[in-house]
Amino acid sequence: MIASLFAAQACAPSECFAVPANIAFGICALLMIGAAIKVVTETNIVHAALYLVVVLAGVGVNYLILQAEFLAVTQFLVYIGAIIVLFLFGIMLTRAPMGRSDDLDNAKLRPAGIGAAVMLLVVLGGALLSSFGETHLVFSTANSTTALSDAVFNQYLIPFEVVSVMLLAALIGAIVLARRD
Amino acid sequence: MFAIDPLLESVDGSAVLIVLLKVVVAFAALMIAVMAMVWFERKVVARMQNRLGPNVAGPFGILQTLADGVKLFFKEDLLPREADRPVFRLAPYLSLVPAFLVFVVVPLGGDFSNDRHGVVSWFGKETLVQVADPHIGILFVLAMSSMAVYGVMLAGWSSGSKYPLLGSVRAAAQMISYEAALGLSLLAVLLNSGSLSTNEIVSGQSGWNWNLWATGVVPFIVFFIAATAELNRPPFDLVEAEQELVGGFHTEYSSLRFALFFLAEFMNTITMSAVIVTLFLGGPNGPSFGPGWLQAILPTVWFLAKLLVFLFVFVWLRGTLPRLRYDQLMDLGWKLLIPLALGWFLLLAAFKIGQDEGWNRAVVGVVGTVVILLGALLISMAVGTARARRAAVEVEA
User: What per-residue confidence (pLDDT) applies to A161?
Assistant: First the structure.
C-alpha cells in the first residue's frame, strides 16, 4: 500500500522547475521506491520499520526540494521522531523479535496486494497528473512558514479547530477503550 | 537571509566557499569542544568527589581524552553473536549525526546590538557566524533531538541482550515524555520572539532583553530540566544506570563504536547547552568594548562564557544529585513539567493579547492565573474521582 502511494508520487513527474531539483527528486524517488518495496517484503519487523523511516524521510526531502521547509521539518518531527519511535517502542515492549518472523509475509495475498498497489498507483498518479500536471513551480526565497501559518489561522481556522477537536475526541476515546474502568 | 536551499541555486561560488569554511570550522570546533568537555567533566567530577582526576597525560591531564581515543581506536571491535549486524553497526552513527546537526543552527558570534542581526563581513561577503539560518531553525533542533532517540533505541535492541534492551525501552519512554515538556517550554520563547529562526530569536534578545526574564524564568527551568532528561544525563540517566543495567544501551559495544556513543553523548550536552544559551540567555549578546579586533571576537567570548556555565552546571548536577526512580521520572515529566509549561504558556499568551488590546496587566495576570488554577483544579478533581472509583472497584474485587 505504502509502496504504491510513493511509487505514484515518483511516477508523476514534477514539471521541470529546475534541473538540479529534478535530479535530486529522481534520486530521492528511487531510494523511496526501493525502501517502500523493502517495507512490505522484509520479514524482520524492526528492519521494516526502519525502511519506513527511509520512505518518510524521502517525503521530507521532497518537501525540502519544493521549499516547504516547515512541512519538511514537521514531517521529520512527527512521522520519524514520534510515530515510528512509538512503533519501535511498541515492538520492543511487547516482543522484540530478533531474527525473521515468517508470519509477516502472507504469500497467498500477494497478488491481491500487487493489484491494489497498481490500482492505487493509477488512481493517484492520474489524479495528480490531471490536477497538477500543468503547474510550474517557481523558485522563491519567501518565508513559507509565515504564509502557512497565516493560511491555517485565518482562512482555514475553522477546519483546523474541527480537526483538533476530532483528534482530542479520538484521544479520549482511545483512553476510554483501553482502560475499561 | 538564507532560506533552505539544498541545491545552492541562488548563491555564487564564493558564497559556497564561505559555507564550506563555516562547516569545516564548526565541525572542528565541536570536535575540540567535545574533547575538552570529556576532560572537563572528569576533572570537575573528580574534584567534587575529592579525587585528582586525570593528571598524567599532558598538563593537568588535558590530553587524557586523546589517549583514551587512541586506546579505543586500537581495541578489538566485538560483534555479539546474537546481534542484528546491520542495525548494530548503524546505531552509533544514528546517535552521532543528529548531535552534530543541531550545532548548525546555533549562532556562535556576531554583533546583534542595534538591529545588526549578527551580520559579519568575511572576505567582502556579508554572512552570519552560524552555519545555516533556516526559517524553521528551532524546529530543526527539536526534530534532531527527537531523531537522537533512534541511536539509543536501536543500539539496545540490536545488541540481542536483555540489559541493553531494557535500557533502550527506558530511553524511548523517557525521551518521548520529555520532548513534550521541551516543546511546550519552547513555545513561550517563540511567543516572545515571534520567529522560529535562531538568528531572529537572538536578535530579539539584544541589550540584556533576554528571554530568561522576558518569559518569566519558569519556561527556562522547565526547558533545562527537560533538556537534562532528553540528554539522559544524571539525575535522569536511567538509560545507562550502571547498578541495574550493567552499562545500559551500550553494554555490548566496544572499541570505536563505543567511542562514537560516548562522543555523541558529550556532543549532545554541548549542543543542548548552546541551544539553551541561544534561546534564553541571548546567545552571543553581551557588553561590547575595546578596540575593533576585541569587539569582533567579544560576542563569541560571551557565547563561550555562557556555554561554560551550563556545562559546569550539568557536571555539577552529575556530581550532586542521586538518580531518580522510574516512577518519579514519569511523574515529574507528565504531572509537573508539562502542565506547568502549558499553563505558563497560556498565561504568557493572555499577557500578549492584553498588551495588544491595551488591557491592564495586573487584571490580565489575576484573571489568567485564576482561570488556569480553576482548570487545574477541575482536571485534578476529575482524575481524583476516577482514581477513587477505581480503588473502590479494586477493594470490592
Answer: 92
**List of residues 6+ apart from A49 with CB closer than 8 A:** A84, A87, A88, A91
Separation of alpha carbons A127 and A144, rounded Å = 25
Instruction: Specify the amino acid at residue B12.
Output: D
Number of structural domains in chain B: 1
Chain B residues with beta carbon closer than 8 angstroms to that of A86: 176
Cα A122 to Cα A15, A39, A57, A109, B2: the distances in Å are 19, 21, 24, 20, 39
Mean pLDDT along residues B22-32: 86
CATH 3.40.50.2300 assigned to domain A10-101+109-178? The reply is: no
Q: Is B22 within the bounds of a domain?
A: no
C-alpha cell at B306: 555562557
pTM for the complete prediction? 0.84
The region of weakest confidence among A134-138, B154-158, B224-228 is A134-138
Band the pLDDT of B176: cuts 50, 70, 90: confident
Cell, residue B14: 564564493
**In a domain? residue B307:** yes
- Report ipTM (2 d.p.): 0.77
Question: pLDDT at position A8, please?
Answer: 43
Supply the range of the domain harboring residue B82.
Answer: 78-324
Return the top range by mean pLDDT from A38-42, B76-80, B344-348. Answer: B344-348
Which residue in chain A is spatially nearest to B171 when comparing CA positions?
A89
Q: Closest to A181 (Cβ–Cβ): which among B7, B154, B390? A: B390
Give the contacts of B84 (CB within 8 A, at least 6 positions apart): A44, A46, A98, B157, B158, B160
CB contact under 8 A, A145 and B135: yes
B5, B6, B169: residue with CB nearest A92: B169
Task: Answer for the pair B117, B199: CB distance below 8 angstroms, yes or no.
Answer: yes
Q: For residues B300 and A165, which has the higher predicted lDDT (pLDDT)?
A: A165
Q: Above 80 in pLDDT, residue A6?
A: no
Task: Decide if B104 is inside a domain.
Answer: yes
pLDDT at A167: 93
Which of B7-11, B279-283, B357-361 is least confident?
A: B7-11
Torsion angle of the four alpha carbons B68, B99, B133, B5, in this order, in degrees rounded to the nearest 10: 110
| Chain B interface includes A94 (CB < 8 A) | no
Say if B297 falls within a structural domain: yes
Q: Domain segments of chain A: what residues?
A: 10-101+109-178
Among candidates B10, B87, B143 on the partner chain, residue whose Cβ is nearest the Cβ of A141? B10
Check CB contact under 8 Å for A65 and B6. yes
Least reliable range by pLDDT among A49-53, A97-101, B141-145, B168-172: A97-101
| Lowest mean pLDDT segment, chosen from A46-55, B165-174, B240-249 | B240-249
Distance CA B320, CA B183 (A): 27
Burial class of B73 by CB neighbour count within 10 A (0 to 12, 13 to 18, 19+): exposed
Q: CB-based contact (8 Å) between A77 and chain B? A: yes
Q: What residues of chain A, 28 to 47, have a C-beta less than 8 Å from chain B?
A: 44, 46-47
